[in-house]
Amino acid sequence: MRHRSSLIALLLLFSNALPGAAKQSRLQSYYNIAEGNYLIGDRSGAARGIEQCLRLDPEHAPSLALQSKLLLEQSEIEAALASAEAAIASAPEELEYQVLRALILGNLDRREDAMAQIDTVLAKAQPGSEHARTAQHLKGLLKMAEEKWDDAADAFQKTYGPQPEASDTGRQLATEAYLEKARTAPDIEGALAAIDQAIELYRGQTGRENLEALSRLEIKRAQLLAQAGETQQATTVLQQIVGEDPDNLEATVTLASLYANREEWLALEDLIEPISKNPALADIALYLKGRVALARDRVGTARARFEEALELNANRPTALQHALEFYRSICFERLKRRDEAIKSLKRAVDGGYVPETPDEAVHLGRLLLRQKDLDPLLPTLEKALLRGNTSAEGWALLGRAHIKKGRNELALSALNQSLDLEPEQAGILALRGSLLRKIGDLQGALVDYERAHQLEPSSPVLSYEQGLVLLQLGRIGEAEPFLRVAARKLTTHVTLDLLHASCAYTLGKYEEAAQSLQQYLHPQLEGDALKQFKANQSDTAAYLHTLLSGKKGIQISELATTSKSATLYNDYARGKASRKQVLDWAGRAETPEQARTQICAASYWLAQLERARAHSENLKELLHIAIETGSPENPEFQFARWQLKHD
User: Fold this and answer.
1) Between 228 and which of 188, 221, 427, 469 could a Cys-Cys bridge form, CB atoms 3.0 to 4.6 Å apart?
2) Do 515 and 622 lie in a common domain?
C-alpha cells in the first residue's frame, strides 16, 4: 500500500513536471474521456474524469462547465452555479458558459439575473448562431415560467430563423406557449384569443405536419366555442374539417358529441358508423348509440349500451366513464329506480363530471333535491349553470337547493337568474315572493305575488300568500278578500279559517267572521288529524266566539273548551276577572317570544270587548299594549295598528 501511494505521488509530480504541450495533451485526453462518459450516461466516470482534469488545471473552463452540468443534474444547483461562473472567469469570451449560467440562474428562480445574462449573450452572439438560438430558446422558457406567453412565443420564433425546418420548430414551440396561455386564461374569450394567435402561425403554411397542427388547433377552438355556448359556430368549423378530412377521428368524435348535445340525432347517426369501425373507439360508439336510443325513449336499450361501454372502461377510469355513469343515472331515473339513479349520479360527479347541456343540469338538480345531504352535488350544479348550460328550470332547482340549505341570498340570486330567462313562471315568482317575505322585503314579495296571481288567478295558495303579505304590510282591508278565498277553498288548512275570521272581525264584517269561525270549529278532518286539532285549538277561537255571540243576528254553535285563557276572557267580559289576571296568564310560556305573542293576542282581543262597550281609553291602552309586546309577524299586532289608525 505504501508503494502504491508513493507511485501515485510520483505520477502527480511527473504530470506537474510535464512540458506544457504534453500536459495539455494529457488534459485534453482526460477531458475527452470525461465528456464521453457524460454523453453515454456514465455520470460516475464523468465525475472521475473531471476530477483528473481539474487536478491538472483547476481553471480548465471546459471541465468546469461539464462539472457544472453534472452538478445541475444532481440538483446541486448552487455548486453548479459556482462551477459555471469559474468557467466564465477562465474563458470570458466563451458564450456557451454564459448560456449555462443563465440556465442555472433560471433553476434558482433568479429570473431577472437569468434574463440579464441572456441579453448579454444575445448582444454578443452572431444572429442565427447556435449560442443565439440557445439563448432565445432559454428566454422563451423563462418567459413561460413567468406566464408571459406572448413574449415566450416571440422568443421561440426568433430562436429558429427563417429556414423551413428550423421555422417549423420555432412555430411548434410558439404554439405551446399560446396553448399554455389558453389553458391559463381567466375566461373563454381569453382562451379563444390565444388559440387564434396559435392558428395564425399556421396560416398559409404547407406540409402535412403544419396542416395537422392547424387542424388540431381548429378542433380545440371549436371545443372552446362549444363551452362558450356558440355551438352552431363550433359545429360549422368541425363540419368543415370532417368534410375535408373524413378520416380525422378527433374532429369526427368532437362533432358527434356536439350533435348529441344539440339533439341532432339524424346527423349523429351518420357519424356513428365511421366511429364504430375503429375498435379503439368502441366505447365512444356505444355511448353515442345509447344517447340516440335514450332520445327515442328506448330506455332499456340505452341503458344496455351505456353499461356495455362501462364494462370496456372498467379498468381505466376516463372522462367518458363518468359521462356513461351520468346517463345511466338518467335511465334509472326514468325507470323509477331512484336509489340506483342516485348512486350512478354520485359516481359521475365524484369522477369530476359536470353536466354539458341544460337538460343534464336539470336532471342533476331534480335528483339533488331528493337528497338530505345536498353538499356533494350542489357545487356541480352551480358549475354546470355557470358554464353556460343554463335554463330557467336549472336555476330554479339551484334556488330551491339553496333554500333547503338556508342560504337565502344565494337562493335569491338563482331565482333571479331563472326569472330573467323566463319571467312568467308563477311558481317561481311565488317562491321568490316567499323568500323576500322571509328576509323582510314585503313590498318586493307583494310585487311577485301579484304577478304570480295574474298568471294563475284561480290559485287559492296564491290568494293566501298575497293576503298574508298584505296583512303583514298592515293593509287589512285589501288582505281580507284574498284570505277569504283561501279559507273557502283550502278547507283542510283550518288555521286559514281562523285567520280570515280575525281579519273580517277587525273590519266589522261579522257575518263573514262568523262563517269562517264556524268552519274552523267544525273542520273537515278525521281520525288523528281531528284529535290533534281539538287538542291544540287556538284561544283566539274562544275570544272570537265570545265576541260574535254577543252580536245581534249572529248565530254560532256552542264552543266546548276547557282552556283557562278562554275562561278568564269570559270572566273579564262578565266583570269577574281583571285585565292583569288575563294578561298574566297569557304571559306564561316556554319562551319570552312566545309569551309576548300571547300577551299581544290577549291584549288585542280584550280591546275588542272594550270597543264593544265604547270604553275608548281602555281600548287605546290595550291596543298599545298589543303593539308594544307584539311584532309585525303577529296578526294581532297589525290589527291593533290598523284599528288605532282607523277608529
Assistant:
1) 188
2) no
CB 398, CB 385: distance < 8 Å: yes
CA distance 311 to 326: 15
Task: Evaluate whether 567 touches 548 at the Cβ level (below 8 Å).
Answer: no
Residue 560 DSSP class: -
pLDDT at 160: 57
> Count of residues for the chain?
647
- Asked if residue 575 and residue 546 are part of one domain, the reply reads no
Tens of pLDDT, residue by residue over 226-279, are 877 788 999 999 999 999 889 888 899 999 999 998 899 999 999 999 999 999
DSSP state of 375: T
Same domain, 518 and 579: no
C-alpha to C-alpha distance for 346 and 367, rounded to whole angstroms = 10
Sequence-distant (≥ 6) Cβ neighbours of residue 361 within 8 angstroms: 355, 381, 384, 385, 389, 390, 391, 394
Identify residue 300 by its one-letter amino acid code: G
Domain endpoint, select from 100, 123, 146: 146
Q: How confident is the model at residue 563 (pLDDT cuts 50, 70, 90)?
A: confident
330 residue type, one letter: I
DSSP for residue 115: H
CA 139 to mean position of chain CA atoms: 38
* Nearest by Cα to 275 from 292, 296, 294: 292
DSSP state of 281: G
Evaluate whether 401 touches 362 at the Cβ level (below 8 Å). Answer: no
23 pLDDT band, cuts 50/70/90, is low
The DSSP letter of residue 413 is: H
Q: How far is CA 145 from CA 151, 174, 426, in A?
A: 11, 14, 54
pLDDT digits over 41-97, tens only?
888 988 998 998 999 899 999 999 999 899 988 999 999 999 999 999 989 888 888
Asked whether residue 507 falls in the same domain as residue 614, the answer is no
CB 459, CB 482: distance < 8 Å: no
Q: In angstroms, what is the C-alpha Rg of the chain?
A: 42
Kindly tell me if the per-residue pLDDT of 502 is higher than 80.
yes
Chain mean pLDDT for the chain: 87
Cβ atoms 172, 205 nearer than 8 A: no
Give the Cβ contact number of residue 455 at 10 Å: 15
CA distance 144 to 158: 15
3-class state of residue 491 by DSSP: coil
> Is there a single domain that holds both residue 32 and residue 128?
yes
- More confident position, 644 or 172: 644
d(C-alpha 67, C-alpha 58), whole Å: 12
Its domain, for residue 60, covers 26-146
Rounded CA separation 62/591 (Å): 89
CA distance 134 to 627: 85
Counted domains in the chain? 3
Kindly provide the b/e burial profile for residues 366-401, where b requires at least 16 CB atoms within 10 angstroms of the residue's own CB: ebbbebeebeebbebbbebbebebbbbbbbbbbbbb
Residues 6+ apart with CB under 8 A from 188: 224, 227, 228
Q: How far is CA 65 from the centre of its chain?
A: 52
| Residue 98 neighbours by CB distance under 10 Å | 24
Which triple of cell numbers denotes residue 128?
442565427
